[in-house]
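Much of the work behind modern protein science is quiet bookkeeping, done one molecule at a time. The protein below has been through that process, and both of its lines are reproduced in full.
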Amino acid sequence: MAGTLPAEPHISRGAVEPARLALDAARRKPGTGRVRWVEGAAEVLPQRSFEAVLMTGHVAQFFISDEQWLSTLRLLRRSLVAGGRLIFDSRDPPGPGVGALGSRRLTSVRRAAGR
């Protein structure tokens, strides 16, 4: 979850998290008062409702099977409007910390098959 969010009233934000304790901790962070918090998983997301979905914190490691991971990705795709983006936040724990990257900015965009 973001520590601070820009105060832009025309942008709606939501967060879906299956763990209540994680939701409670996120709610207490500064700048998150405008976020709509939902306890659940990808199944609770409405169809064709989001321009972007961000998956954070090594979320992929929590899926037990390939089928569960693929099902989640399909549900997330279903929740996106045409041209929407699925964004992953990932780090390489054994690799250098973000501080070692200096001022370089890493960006990668890949289009999913069929999009």
In short: The longest strand covers residues 80-88. Residues 50-92 form one domain. The chain has a mean pLDDT of 77. Strands lie at 13-17, 35-39, 50-55, 80-88.
